[in-house]
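_Per-residue structure_
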Amino acid sequence: MNRKHKRTLEWIIEKPERSDIPWKDIEALIVALGGEISEGRGSRVRIFLNDTRAVFHRPHPKRVTDKGAVKSMRRFLKEAEVVS
């Protein structure tokens, strides 16, 4: 995991939630952690990490996540035992 991935992870776990994290940085973090990302229908992406699965929607038309998506990603990373 490089410095950019660590910064993205810090942004995800910090409170209050940020609404300016680029989605591509979150996907890069998941891959750096050893996760798999596959395309679903429309804007859906399936994420598999440490025997934990989730489905997220890529943000559009903006390419940054909203606070709700950040909360969901934090919950997913906790379930995948990446953060405590």
